[in-house]
Adenylate kinase (Knufia obscura), 267 residues
Amino acid sequence: MSDRQVEDLKLQVANLTARLEKLEGENKPAHSKSPAEAMRMILIGPPGAGKGTQAPKIKDKYCVCHLATGDMLRAQVAKKTPLGREAKKIMDQGGLVSDDIMINMIKQELDTNKECQNGFILDGFPRTVAQANGLDDMLQNNNKPLKHAVELQIDDQLLVDRITGRLIHPASGRSYHKVFNPPKDSMKDDVTGEPLIQRSDDNAEALKKRLVTYHDQTAPVVAYYKKAGIWSGIDASKDPGTVWKSMLGVFDSKPQSSSILSKIGLK
């Protein structure tokens, strides 16, 4: 390639970049949203991958709510809300709570929880493609589409090692590990000083069964978000600080809008 051709290419790139920046400006609302307002994400990962460690950091940095659907469901049942009563009736009969109930529960939280005004981290849902579709429809109707689907990836055997030493603070969901991430005071939460517990199903045999179910359920959901263009994978085998830096790298990256790219002939 000649010097002249190289210069022509550079000029074309510069022109396209200028046009892209102009189009991005035209597509911005009158009041630009802050990064926190755009933080709408789901956190995907098997038990022990580090969701309980990373989610509170995301919540604190971006001032968003952390919606762990299992905890939300138990809270709705305990409060005896209409959704909670309906869910309890199904669970008492040995059934699975419907996708509609779960999605309505999430919608109610987004509509009423002040912590969710700047965005949310969704943890534990969706677990099927049907749930992902239903969630997308609800969020699109509220004009709050997902921005990120982050998967914490880790080898199953390392998870077994992690889980058998995991400690939980029941009230907040904060997690620790006897070896990898111990609390400042033995068996006490760093923030409240309340006792930590070890879950009864945090043993090797139970975990291996849970992992089989997790992989069967999650693979199609990951494929769904890859196709949507919002998936990112992070190596969760690293220390929590390194995982956090990788997480920030995902949030700080600037995805290019496919609609904008199509306007300038790049898609």
Observations:
- The CA atoms of residues 21 and 260 lie 10 Å apart.
- Strands lie at 39-44, 65-68, 119-123, 148-153, 166-168, 175-177, 231-235.
- Residues 3-27 form the longest helix (25 residues).
- DSSP finds ten helices and seven strands in the chain.
